[in-house]
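Data card: per-record layout.
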Amino acid sequence: MTMNASFIKDLARRCGADLVGIASVERFANVPMSENPREIKPDTSSVIVLGFRILRGALRGIENGSNWGSFSASDPGGMCTYMQEATYHFCREIEENGYEALPLIRHSYDLRDRGIPVAPDRAAPDVIIDMELAAQQAGLGEMGMGKLFLTPEFGPRQEFTAVLTELELEADPIFRGHLCDHCGECAKACPALALDTKQITGRMPHWALRYESCQICRTGTSPRPYSLGLEPNRVGAACGRACVRHLEEKTHSC
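The structure for this 254-residue chain is written out next.
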């Protein structure tokens, strides 16, 4: 069996992923040790990113003001569990074909550097990759100005997992489109004024997000599992829903 990029992508979709992209580990060469894939698995050749759609219907109850409970993108008992199971089965299939596969889920970045390095030249645990950066490097989409990662298929409506493997796979090209048109609807919709449209920041440029304002929002934000300092999931909040609506009106495809 040839474990090439085409096979891997077909396998990921059969295991339940809606999106799959591949990045060569060399694309992370300048990433700090605290988030570098090779600090987790030193023989990593490829970073495979799996995307799972957030169901459009799950946002309807929030938009109607009647039911927020169905939006479970970050609920450990809901979509989060499904994503982990699908990623596990994907990794198991890779390992049954003779290669190692290390699954990763989103964790709070403030859990980095809490442990003791195993050697002076190694990062302290935990090493936690940036899922949005990995998705961008795997060619799946771009960071919007509202700090919501956008894909052509679903706009901001997805969550990601990643898999590290020594398999040498053909990498996908970096996405060069322009999904975000800087419309500002996300910032206008935010009741806490958490997005500062006068300040651009980040290695994937976006408007500055005031975390302290975002965390107290009551318009549909939900906390990340295992997170202490990471901003909440904002797809279901007023800012995220405004982005979804704008992209749907513009493209009729997400």
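Known properties of this structure: The beta strands are 19-24, 46-53, 101-104, 142-143, 149-150, 158-165, 195-201, 206-209. The first strand starts at residue 19 and ends at 24.

See the next section for split statistics.
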